[in-house]
Amino acid sequence: MINEHIDVPMVRVVGDGMEPTIMNTKEALAQAYDEGMDLVMISPNANPPVCKIIEYQKYLYEQKKKEKERKANSTKVVIKEIRLSPQTDDHDFEFKLNHAKRFLKEGNKVKVDVFFRGRSIVYKEQGEAQLLKFAEALMEYGKPEAMPRLEGKRMLIIIAPKK
Fold first, then answer.
1. DSSP H helical segments within the chain, as ranges?
2. How far apart are CA 70 and CA 20, in angstroms?
3. In this predicted model, what pLDDT tens digit does every residue of 65-80 receive, in sequence order?
4. Using CA atoms, how far apart are residues 1 and 16, in angstroms rounded to an integer?
5. Residue 144's pLDDT is what?
6. pTM of the full structure
């Protein structure tokens, strides 16, 4: 609540360079207007409620600026996906391994999955071996979040980058 919207009779007024004092709301408003600022209620639950003399629009601007800066500094987690088959050749394996290394260096997570087509599901051990070999080759760039798990016709593992 700001200025005339403050409907309590007495408030504790704080501000930059002034000592906290308890005064009548009308007096506090007059003091704020004399300084060319606004009276803003900070803590309505206190007894008496605490108000601060500040420039409200400047305060809103700074809050928005802080929020924007905080949002910019937060990192978004991106998951890149690499697909193998139970019989992936060595050259293809190395090629996809290099892609995964690049993704992990960039700070992205890598989801590696082995897709079983048709009756190749009987070669689950080969798929698990492929994933474990892949995770072991990436040990210096990232670490697996969990052991390989089977979901339908896919076996997958997620590798998170090392900090």
1. 25-34, 56-73, 90-105, 124-137
2. 31
3. 999 998 888 777 889 9
4. 19
5. 92
6. 0.55
Chain mean pLDDT for the chain = 88
- CATH number at 126 reads 3.30.110.10
Place of tokens 């040990």: 139
Domain end (from 49, 70, 91): 70
Which residues form the domain of 152? 79-161
Q: Which two tokens stand for residue 103?
A: 């993704």
pLDDT(110) > 90: yes
- Split into its structural domains, the chain has a count of 2
- The neighbouring-strand residues paired with 14 are 52
86: confidence class by pLDDT, cuts 50, 70, 90 = confident
- The tokens of 162 are what? 């090392």
List, as one string, the DSSP characters of 85-104.
-TT--HHHHHHHHHHHHHHH
